[in-house]
Amino acid sequence: MNDAVAEGKTMGLVYRLLLRPLLVLQDSERAHTRSVRSLRLLTSNRVTKYLISLVYKTRKTLPVTLFGTEYKHPFGLAAGMDKKGEAINGWDSLGLSFVEIGGVTMLEQTGNPKPRMFRSTSNKALINRMGFNNPGSENMHENLTKHFDKYGKPKIPIWVNLGKSKLTENADAHMDYSTTLGKLWEFTDVFVINVSSPNTPNLRDLQGEEELKKIINSCLEVNESKSMDYQLPPKPILIKIAPDMTFEQLEQIITVAMDSGCAGVVATNTTVSRDFDLVEDAKLGEKGGLSGLPLKTTSTEFIKHIYRFTDGKFPIIGVGGIMDADDAWEKITAGASLIQAYSGFVFEGPSLASSIVRGLDRKLRDSGIKDLEQAVGLIHKESN
Ligand SMILES: Cc1cc2nc3c(=O)[nH]c(=O)nc-3n(C[C@H](O)[C@H](O)[C@H](O)COP(=O)(O)O)c2cc1C
User: Atom 15 of ligand 1 has which residue's CA nearest to it?
Assistant: First the structure.
């Protein structure tokens, strides 16, 4: 074990034993805001950025090529953690291979009244009803312009999660999504259409066939025109789905997404269900979307179903309850080409990426598989 790896392990332990108990004492959203802001500050200075990379960044690579881009390993940051795209330098230093910023809506929004984010540590779960608090597409354009001017293009791919402004009626949702896509096109590697957050009234209705087609078509049109303006290839557009539906509904959505020209699917968003084997906790009574460990199995079942339904031909990004390398392996072998986490960072700390990459590397060696791409959907191949 080299020094940096040993240090990474120690930092994970330090986080769990010392920092996490301190963070638990703070209001959940405030602790989150402070953590992202500290990461931004620490990684805007070259020396501290280098030191953070030294401790947290793994040198191991497990390359995955998807949408024509090589990802150094499959693990990225899920949407919602960096809603303003304020710590872009930091995520690379923590060893992530890509980051999904946002959700960004066309209009600036403050979101729902606080408190709106709750932690159930005994269940390794979060409940949130943020309601797309974000700077809006115009301000986001400005933030990213400043960032790119100062630091250049980020080292890791930047994905943008597209939400719908609360003020925009569902009938005009297509215009809201595609306006944001157009505004942020030049900075973005991949767009994710989010029609699955449970905290914007009626947003999930947009997962219906007609509504979804309209949104995807409108985004594809703007994508095509920006691609011509910049003389660059169009960006991959993915769809992010909720876990609260039947497999029949899921198949309908996947069919629409594939037929309309989406490049893949992110499975899944948070769940409104509380029908899990949970340790009793008053926080679980809060309204909102549940994420973290209790969501893990449902999200993996969705991934398995999509992989089987599409014969592994529609790229899946797996998210929901990934806390360690075993969970990551479960998602990949179920059919996910790339994976993401949000809650895992809250409960396991900033060394999550390096410990997952190290663990995946070990799993590959133990199973005698040469590269990670061969592990994608492995359970389906083994059962044939
Ligand atoms: C506080 C919070 C805010 C979130 N905001 C967004 C968002 O804006 N857009 C989105 O698509 N997903 C959002 N998510 C969902 C996550 O991206 C992810 O799909 C979900 O939390 C499951 O992953 P996890 O179990 O690793 O947290 C949010 C999650 C949390 C906890």
Answer: 269
DSSP characters over 104-129: E-SS-B--SPSP-EEEEGGGTEEEE-
Q: Phi, psi (5° rounding) for residue 235?
A: -90, 145
Atom of ligand 1 nearest to the CA of 134: 8
How many whole angstroms separate alpha carbon 363 and alpha carbon 350?
21
Q: What is the Å distance from ligand 1's center to 219 Cα?
A: 22
Supply the mean pLDDT for the chain.
Answer: 93
pLDDT at 27: 83
Q: How much is the average pLDDT of 24-46?
A: 87
This prediction has a pTM of: 0.95
- Range of 312's domain? 3-382
Q: How far apart are CA 70 and CA 74, in angstroms?
A: 10
CA distances in angstroms from 233 to 5, 99, 228, 278, 378, listed in the order given: 38, 20, 8, 46, 31
Q: Which amino acid is at 79?
A: A
pLDDT digits (tens, 9 = 90+) for 252-308: 999 999 999 999 999 999 999 999 999 999 999 999 999 999 999 999 999 999 999
Which residue out of 98, 109, 237, 342 has the highest number of ligand 1 atoms within 8 Å of its CB and is therefore the one to mutate?
342
Among 204, 239, 270, residue to substitute to test ligand 1 (most atoms within 8 Å of Cβ): 270
- Report how many domains make up the chain: 1
pLDDT tens for 151-201 read 999 999 999 999 999 999 999 999 999 999 999 999 999 999 999 999 999
Contact criterion met (CB below 8 Å) for 69 and 18: no
Separation between Cα atoms, residue 179 and residue 272, nearest integer Å: 29
Is 147 within 8 Å of 115 (Cβ atoms)?
Answer: no
CATH at 18: 3.20.20.70
**Dihedral of alpha carbons 257, 258, 263, 268, sign:** positive
pLDDT at 58: 85
